[in-house]
Amino acid sequence: MNGTAWTHTTVLLHEAIDALMTSPDGIYVDGTFGRGGHARALLARLGPQGRLIALDRDPEAVAAATQGATRVLDPRFSIHHANFAQMRDVLATLGVTKVQGVLLDLGVSSPQIDNPARGFSFRFDAPLDMRMDPTRGESAADFLARADERSISEVIRDYGEERFARPIAKALVARRESGHPVRTTVELSELVARAVRTREAGQDPATRTFQALRIFVNAELEALEQGLNATLDLLAPHARLAVIAFHSLEDRRVKEFIARESRDVIDRRAPFATPRALRLRAIARIKPGAAEVAANPRARSAILRVAERTEAA
Question: Long-range contacts for 191-200 (Cβ within 8 Å, ≥24 apart)?
Fold first, then answer.
């Protein structure tokens, strides 16, 4: 934890807990503990027989829950160093097959952004890492050091929705071939600023490239798909799924998942067979109010989607 208490303001705190909580004595999963804002609020609402199982892929988040002044001292709580895509396996080791609710707060947290050493932000000069779990996988710098121009361009285009992906990728490869590959956040930010010909008002030109590399390095969209699919098996009838997304790529997948599982499906190969019954029911789409956005500008793009598991097996 390097001795610094990186703070985090929880987004849509009360809205998420109100939407998720249906039974105070149920078992709940917080798949993205972060610094525990949602988890602590949920524990405050749980009954004596309730249980909260938290996961986080970031070792620093796990340390915040288990060490020092921020640790959670509650016998109803446990935390596990794991990606929420692995929640089915984690719960199986605990003997849990059904839960009353699952909460996912997607994207990067404020402590990850604000800690220069993590390499998520172009506001600080730091090694270009961007891994949510620094103990596993390939850093952003290592990816840029090995990938070809086409691969880099596709990542920046697909995950950052950056229209200047090709010139950015070309500049990255040219710099690498000159013997000076990009290794720090400032180097990447300056290179992108030179490659992007027009700038969006109020947005740094490197924003989309940083987002793209972060999503790719952490396989965030793949993990989201796996995590959402796991909830279908884990949620008991009438249990709730609550997902907070901060950009369109994530929110689109959550929206499509809920829509897909909220309608009867007819197998066109067997048109007279009984349709597969819907498995979810969309409950709500909630955005932060003006007061929350004013107090925490990072909340402005957040969208909370809530769905309920039906009786269907």
Answer: 192/168, 195/164, 195/167, 195/168, 195/170, 195/171, 196/164, 196/167, 196/168, 197/164, 197/167
Which of 156, 170, 246 lies closest to 207, judged by CA? 156
Q: Which two tokens stand for residue 272?
A: 């007279």
Domain ranges, residue 287: 13-111+220-309
Q: In what helix (H) or strand (E) does residue 168 lie, and over which residues does it extend?
A: helix 165-177
**Bridge pairing between strands 77-81 and 303-309:** unpaired
Answer with the one of 217, 250, 273 that is the final residue of a domain: 217
Q: Does 82 share its domain with 67?
A: yes
Query: Could you tell me the CATH number of the domain that includes residue 177?
Result: 1.10.150.170
* Distances in whole angstroms, Cα of residue 203 to Cα of each of 100, 121, 200, 266: 40, 13, 6, 45
Residues 6+ apart with CB under 8 A from 260: none
Token code pair at residue 293: 């956005």
For residue 105, the cross-strand partners are: 244
- 3-state DSSP call for residue 173? helix
What is the mean pLDDT of each successive set of 10 residues along the chain, which is 313 residues long? 55 96 97 94 97 96 93 97 97 98 89 75 88 94 98 97 96 97 96 88 88 96 97 96 95 97 66 71 96 91 96 66
Whole-angstrom distance, CA of residue 210 vs CA of residue 189: 8
Parallel/antiparallel/unpaired status of strands 99-105 and 235-245: parallel
Q: How far is Cα 50 from Cα 115, in angstroms, rounded to an integer?
A: 34
Cβ neighbours of residue 3 closer than 8 Å, sequence gap 6 or more: none
Q: Within 10 Å of residue 143's Cβ, how many Cβ atoms?
A: 18
